[in-house]
């Protein structure tokens, strides 16, 4: 099982040269992106119907970025050519036998004249019928087409750029004012918005986490260690790079272009057990894998760790797009530490998938009993009324052991592997939606945090008895949460864990907290209620 790099988008050097010239015409502001308005003007030269162009955009911008880069532009051109040749456009066409590398460029009516005009420098400064140069006209249009108060979003060409601006202008000031980064999550950086989707693998030792990654890549990666004993003793991020190398954790954590600067808060003890494995691979251009140390059973192992294992897992869980919990038929017990790890994933239930690995090591009857036992164990720990999705298979390079499973078991494993493969293939497509979802979740959490901190500040006396009042508020924190919830009509499920909040509060003097600033709350409400929906509306499929 593997995720193949899509063949669509690959083309000959001759065609690539043509498409580059066309891309420069379509990209009128030379920012390396063809946005919706540019695309409407350019693609109209293909003389396709609006419905056909809507499908072209939907497939080319499958990640829903809100624009076409050069690679996506090539895909769009190839799709236009196929439609012009009488092919019906659908996602199935990508799985067919089309030789995309030799798909000829489409017919674009009037494009040659545009290219000629662009090459002629005397045309670029000719005034229009009103006496304005094209440059002046575009600036004037941009200036008057946007609302004055929202002008900072008027020149945004992608959803992630829009979220960056909204975070910097509206959400980050609230987080800094009320120390959100100390209580909940470190402040976001640009690399957090630009990072590729991540898949984290969790499980007890020797359940096949590292082997699973090797199976997906169809090769080993730098620093991979496999064995029946606990071999992976560190967190390893497997990501795309120009050459094969392992980078130490302390180096990665200070790298501004990577989304791991927040891990500095876990200290050198953790960073010495963290590394980044880089290698050139088509799959890693779309997804980053996070391999984790095997969770050991018993209380002793937890105390031996020199860093907060559960805290690190929770940090990665917030960043990841998919979390795979791996079990094997001989390790179904959920230890104390594994239970704490699973509890730390709360709030990310929609990301969790369970994989029963090495399932070809037992016969069909035993597998049925093991599946039932696993569901029973998970039901006690996950504590949700919904049944978690469990994939059954043997995710390694060896063929399925039919001696145990029989032909029916083999067919089942193949279907399960295909389902998991589909889930993984969809990650890059859903990455933008997931990023918006996590951003909105963070904004709601920051708002509730501000209400709590503002309430604690308000309850403090002006002069006498500050220490006693702070102690009383800390001891009765759950009651204070109820008051905040009642006063501001907030959902109880959005409040943080009381014990964790108490732990961080002990390092603060409530008297130094900021009072609640309604204007900051209003800015975040406006961002959630107006700015984000408007951003999504502006950068949706231009043919909707």
Automatic annotation (TrEMBL):
GO MF terms here are:
calcium ion binding; GTP binding
Q: Cite the EF-hand domain residue spans from the record.
A: 48-83
Low complexity bias located where? 122-134
A Pfam family of the record is DUF5600
InterPro entries assigned: DUF5600, Dynamin_N, EF-hand-dom_pair, EF_hand_dom, EH_dom, EHD_N, G_DYNAMIN_dom, P-loop_NTPase
Q: Which UniProt keywords apply?
A: Calcium, Cell membrane, Endocytosis, Endosome, Membrane, Metal-binding, Nucleotide-binding
UniProt keyword Calcium present:
yes
Ranges where the Dynamin-type G domain occurs: 193-429
Q: Which residues form the EH domain?
A: 15-93
Q: What is this protein called?
A: Dynamin-type G domain-containing protein
- Organism, by scientific name, is Gossypium darwinii
């Amino acid at each position: 099982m593997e995720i193949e790099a899509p063949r669509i988008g690959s083309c000959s050097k001759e065609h690539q040269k043509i498409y580059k010239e066309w891309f420069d015409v379509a990209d009128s502001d030379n920012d390396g992106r063809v946005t919706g308005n540019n695309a409407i003007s350019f693609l109209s030269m293909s003389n396709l119907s609006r419905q056909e162009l809507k499908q072209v955009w939907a497939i080319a911008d499958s990640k829903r970025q809100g624009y076409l880069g050069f690679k996506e532009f090539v895909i769009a051109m190839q799709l236009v050519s196929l439609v012009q040749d009488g092919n019906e456009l659908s996602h199935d066409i990508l799985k067919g036998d089309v030789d995309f590398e030799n798909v000829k460029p489409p017919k674009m009516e009037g494009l040659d004249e545009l290219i000629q005009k662009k090459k002629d420098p005397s045309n670029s400064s000719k005034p229009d019928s009103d006496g304005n140069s094209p440059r002046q006209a575009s600036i004037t249009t941009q200036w008057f087409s946007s609302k004055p108060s929202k002008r900072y979003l008027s020149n945004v060409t992608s959803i992630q750029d829009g979220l960056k601006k909204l975070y910097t202008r509206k959400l980050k000031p609230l987080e800094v004012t009320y120390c959100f980064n100390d209580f909940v999550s470190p402040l976001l950086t640009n690399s957090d918005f630009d990072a590729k989707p991540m898949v984290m693998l969790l499980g007890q030792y020797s359940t096949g986490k590292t082997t699973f990654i090797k199976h997906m890549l169809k090769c080993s990666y730098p620093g991979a260690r496999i064995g029946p004993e606990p071999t992976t003793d560190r967190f390893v991020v497997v990501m795309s790079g120009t050459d094969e190398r392992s980078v130490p954790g302390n180096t990665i954590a200070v790298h501004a272009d990577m989304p791991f600067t927040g891990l500095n808060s876990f200290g050198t003890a953790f960073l010495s057990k963290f590394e980044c494995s880089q290698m050139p691979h088509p799959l890693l251009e779309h997804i980053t894998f996070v391999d984790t140390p095997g969770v050991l059973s018993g209380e002793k192992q937890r105390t031996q760790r020199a860093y907060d294992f559960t805290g690190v897992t929770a940090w990665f869980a917030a960043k990841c797009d998919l979390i795979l919990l791996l079990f094997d038929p001989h390790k179904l017990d959920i230890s104390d530490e594994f239970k704490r790890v699973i509890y730390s994933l709360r709030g990310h239930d929609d990301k969790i998938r369970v994989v029963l690995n090495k399932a070809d090591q037992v016969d069909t009857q035993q597998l049925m009993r093991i599946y039932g036992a696993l569901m029973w164990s998970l039901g006690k720990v996950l504590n949700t009324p919904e049944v978690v999705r469990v994939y059954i298979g043997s995710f390694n390079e060896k063929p399925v052991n039919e001696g145990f499973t029989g032909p029916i078991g083999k067919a089942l494993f193949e279907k399960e592997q295909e389902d998991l493969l589909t889930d993984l293939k969809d990650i890059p497509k859903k990455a933008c939606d997931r990023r918006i979802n996590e951003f909105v979740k963070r904004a709601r959490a920051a708002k509730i945090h501000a209400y709590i901190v503002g309430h604690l500040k308000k309850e403090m006396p002006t002069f006498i008895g500050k220490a006693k009042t702070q102690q009383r508020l800390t001891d009765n924190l759950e009651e204070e949460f109820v008051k905040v919830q009642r006063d501001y009509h907030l959902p109880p499920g959005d409040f943080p864990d009381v014990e964790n909040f108490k732990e961080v509060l002990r390092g603060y003097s409530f008297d130094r907290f900021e009072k609640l600033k309604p204007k900051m709350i209003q800015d975040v409400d406006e961002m959630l209620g107006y700015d984000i929906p408007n951003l999504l509306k502006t950068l949706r499929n231009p043919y909707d």
